[in-house]
């Protein structure tokens, strides 16, 4: 799904048009290699793409990434299941190759620390795909916040419900022991963290089981998170609470592919957004809502017949990939070789996709994983505090003096 919606149209357009920017001129960025466990999808894509893509190598097996990084290329994208991101990302960065990794970047702050250090040691970019930050509605929200049109967020609610086909077929191979919060709530964790800033203080969570896996097992159908943030204010700091609900068991005949909505309340206003209900509703006999959805998301990634006759596939899910490649091209080709470090520093400081800026997001993900693990083991309702007197990330069990330091340094 991710490949066909974003990477495939992006690389095919690059193959046809290349990339131009006044800062670095014209560059080509052909798809050079693919690493996967079996290579089945890579070979199927090679056959279906034909001359829409350049010839590429396909590496397979458990050591596919290790062998792939011996090839010469400028950047690599990691779109594996979330619990496999770290090792692939580490090998790529250690080879001196720029990295783009799907969300969540990693599952723990210690992994984040290591990847950030490796990227800096090898002087390469380490970036994360957060395509929802490029959604035009979310960009408008951030504009209002940055311009002080909307003042001090008080609380918020976010919901993202995936269809059952995600957990039942598309991701069935790796779904055991996983949860939809780590996979998709991270979109909204980053949106909240990037848009409103502030200091993450507390994470709470709960989950439900019994559809994807056993009712007493470690595989989750849905989960709910609450994040508490603190914001500087006079005479005392102010707080805001955000609830994020996620699942991957929505019926497949739901009118939209994904149900997505947000609400944020401010001192002087309310923002309501619904990514599925943006004004388009379509009914086609025998096709909706199965093969074509009734409510269409034409903003993330959609196929179009352009007014000038061209067939295209575009949207913010594709745009975020192009932004990254432009950043890499600027670092490598945007000026004198002896000024590369200055260009690298300029691009690396961008917080919207920088791995270094992912600390509070990864802290929330690590906390969620730990809380759900305790719930599975019969110790529900745990709370994780951020940067308290015991450590950077500390888990507390209700009715107990026990505490566990998940991460000792300050977040």
Are there runs of 5+ residues with pLDDT below 50, and where? Answer: none
Q: Name the shape in a single word.
A: globular
Separation, N- and C-terminal Cα atoms: 33 Å
CATH architecture of the largest domain: 3-Layer(aba) Sandwich
List the total number of helices. 11
- Helicity, as a percent range: 25-40%
Q: Assembly type of the shown chains?
A: single chain
Mind telling me the CATH superfamily name of the largest domain?
Answer: NAD(P)-binding Rossmann-like Domain
Largest sheet: number of strands, sense, barrel closure:
9 strands, mixed
CATH fold assignment of the largest domain: Rossmann fold
| CATH class category name of the largest domain | Alpha Beta
What radius of gyration results from the CA coordinates?
Answer: 22 Å
N-to-C series of helices and strands: HEEEHEHEHEHEHEHHEEEEEEEHHHEEE
Mean pLDDT over the residues? 95
The total domain count is 2
Share of residues in strands? 25-35%
Number of DSSP-assigned strands: 18
User: Biggest sheet: strands side by side, in what order?
Assistant: 13-12-8-11-10-9-16-17-18
Provide the structure class.
alpha+beta
Summarize the structure.
The protein is built from 11 helices and 18 strands. The protein has 411 residues and is α+β, with helices and mostly antiparallel strands. The chain folds into 2 domains: 2-132 and 310-349, NAD(P)-binding Rossmann-like Domain (Rossmann fold, 3-Layer(aba) Sandwich), CATH 3.40.50; 136-298, Dihydrodipicolinate Reductase, domain 2, CATH 3.30.360.
């Amino acid at each position: 799904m991710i490949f066909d919606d974003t990477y495939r149209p992006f690389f095919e357009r690059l193959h046809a048009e290349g990339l131009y920017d006044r800062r670095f001129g014209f560059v080509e960025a052909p798809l050079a290699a693919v690493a996967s466990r079996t290579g089945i999808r890579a070979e199927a894509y090679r056959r279906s793409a034909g001359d829409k893509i350049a010839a590429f190598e396909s590496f397979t097996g458990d050591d596919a990434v290790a062998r792939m990084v011996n090839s010469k290329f400028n950047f690599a994208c990691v779109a594996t299941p979330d619990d496999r991101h770290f090792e692939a990302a580490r090998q790529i960065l250690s080879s001196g190759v720029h990295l783009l990794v799907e969300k969540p970047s990693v599952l723990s702050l210690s992994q984040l620390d290591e990847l950030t250090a490796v990227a800096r040691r090898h002087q390469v970019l380490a970036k994360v795909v957060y395509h929802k930050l490029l959604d035009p509605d979310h960009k408008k929200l951030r504009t209002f916040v940055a311009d002080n049109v909307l003042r001090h967020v008080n609380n918020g609610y976010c919901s993202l419900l995936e269809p059952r086909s995600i957990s039942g077929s598309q991701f069935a191979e790796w779904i055991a022991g996983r949860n939809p919060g780590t996979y998709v709530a991270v979109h909204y964790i980053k949106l909240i963290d990037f848009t409103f800033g502030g200091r993450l203080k507390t994470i709470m969570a709960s989950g439900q089981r019994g559809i994807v896996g056993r009712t007493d097992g470690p595989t989750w159908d849905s989960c709910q998170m609450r994040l508490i943030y603190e914001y500087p204010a006079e005479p005392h700091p102010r707080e805001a609470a955000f609830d994020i609900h996620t699942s991957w068991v929505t019926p497949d005949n739901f009118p939209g592919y994904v149900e997505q909505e947000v609400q944020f309340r401010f001192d002087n206003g309310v923002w309501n957004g619904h990514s599925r209900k943006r004004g388009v509703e379509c009914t086609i006999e025998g096709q909706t809502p199965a093969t074509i959805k009734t409510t269409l998301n034409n903003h993330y990634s959609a196929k179009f017949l352009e007014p000038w006759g061209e067939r295209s596939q575009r949207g913010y899910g594709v745009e975020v990939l192009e932004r990254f490649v432009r950043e890499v091209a600027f670092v490598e080709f945007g000026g004198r070789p002896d000024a590369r470090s200055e260009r690298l520093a300029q691009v690396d400081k961008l917080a919207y996709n920088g791995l270094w800026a992912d600390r509070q997001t990864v802290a929330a993900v690590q906390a969620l994983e730990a809380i759900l693990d305790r719930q599975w083991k019969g110790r529900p309702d745990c709370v994780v505090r951020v940067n308290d007197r015991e450590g950077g990330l500390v888990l507390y069990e209700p009715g107990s003096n026990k505490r566990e330091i998940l991460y000792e340094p300050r977040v």
